[in-house]
Amino acid sequence: MPFRPDYEALTKHLDDGKKYARNPRHVSDILEKALTAEPLELPEAAALLHAPPSMDPQIFSAAKKVKEKIYGRRIVLFAPLYISNFCVNNCLYCGFRSGNPSLRRTLLTREEAAKEAEAILSEGHKRILMVASEDPRLDGKALADYMRAIYDAKNGSSIRRVNVNAAPMPTEDFKELKSAGIGTYQCFQETYDEKIYASAHPSGPKNDFHNRIDAMERAFSAGIDDLGFGALFGLADWRFDALALLSHGFYFDKEYGVGPHTLSVPRIEPAENAPLSLRPPHPLPDSDFRRLIAVLRLSMPYTGMILSTREPAELRNECFHLGISQISAHSKTNPGGYSTNDESTSQFSVCDSRTTDEVVASLLRDGFLPSFCTSCYRSGRTGDAFMALAKKGLIQDFCQPNAILTFQEYVSDYASARVKKLWEERIKKELAQINNTQRRAHARKNLEEMKDGKRDLFF
Ligand code: SAM
Ligand code: SF4
What we know:
Layout: H1 7-20, H2 24-34, H3 42-50, H4 56-71, E1 74-82, H5 110-121, E2 127-131, H6 140-152, E3 161-165, H7 171-179, E4 182-186, H8 194-200, H9 209-221, E5 227-230, H10 238-256, E6 262-264, H11 275-278, H12 286-299, E7 304-307, H13 313-319, E8 326-328, H14 356-365, E9 369-371, H15 375-378, H16 383-391, H17 396-413, H18 417-432, H19 437-451
Parallel strand pairs: 1-2, 1-8, 1-9, 2-3, 3-4, 4-5, 5-6, 6-7, 7-8
Helix pairs in contact: 1-3, 2-4, 3-10, 3-12, 4-12, 5-6, 6-7, 10-12, 14-18, 17-18, 17-19
Bound molecules: S-adenosylmethionine and iron/sulfur cluster (SF4).
Residues 87, 89, 91, 94, 96-97, 133-134, 167, 206 line the site of iron/sulfur cluster.
């Protein structure tokens, strides 16, 4: 049986959660369980979603601890690369929608996509999220060709992991992406409320709610086992979508032994000629946004959590402490945005416009360890192999040394003097935190080899 949101059960959990949340003891008991890094049950998550604002300090502190228990203090960086803004859908919140008459449309050539990858590489990134609007010309084979062009691009070094955010496609097309070396396949359900979904997607193939839900199973059956789930917050009641998103992820874990590799929490941003982006039906205030991130982290401790540059710098800095483990930096949301300066073809406005170096400096100052690691995917630690390590809190035995090595590479080849200085003051402390003595010694040896020009060393 494919996944379908169980509206009755979700509504009951949320109603019960509201009642339970009135009792601070009950909320504290749930937090105690969450601190063991055991996934929460849906009724427990519902109670945390409803807990009064006075419980924020405890909930936020637990989320930070759980994230550090699983992933340590590392935060992985990536950049999105948009290849097209031609779209057959009419999503009423998106600047790329077919009904936007004033958008200048562009479909990059493979060469132009490679140029974009080169520009992204020049900032030190090694991981790209390739983003595509829905366009019959962009079938699995075409998307796979773009991925190959991005992998082949060279600028000092090359891109080591390409994740893809693209429309649902048939299993055969997913197989093309698999053969081109896809990292994670991302597809956000936007909202799990079928009625709101129908009104936000009035025409085009995306109007088919179930086809979108089933995309994850088709991708999985094509061999793609790192899957990125998400919802677009602002369309429907945020607690409902948060709980439905969790139920989708738990279903996957139960059915296939692999939970979501990542959860994304995009909030609707203003976009040109996109009516729902200017007046979201259920706007999500910052206070609830913070709670959303913390509760998702506590409910699904082993899952990567992504925060994009849709959010302003200050709020992003705060959210990094609530369980976020992957972030984009210096993003452009228009095809060709890195090699040209034409913002008029963007999907939505980006709020955090800091350069990658500025983001990295701020992460270091706040005690995080920036990472450009792509090692799990390249070492075959995907799907259940990754989950088995993440669930036991063992993944950070890889994350910590790999973060140090890839960040050292960034510092040697791209960093500003300010970041170099911050890293000099930190590297010893980070090395000391590699628990396994042999691995620590190995990392030290790798760092020496890097002084002689060696690159791309990882565990
Ligand atoms: N076209 C594909 C699709 O819709 O699945 C993939 C690319 S689409 C550009 C990626 C995501 O951007 C969408 O799934 C949606 O959640 C998000 N998005 C669209 N319009 C947005 C807006 N105005 N603000 C923030 N996120 C938006
Ligand atoms: Fe097209 Fe995706 Fe934008 Fe919808 S969200 S209009 S499918 S690019």
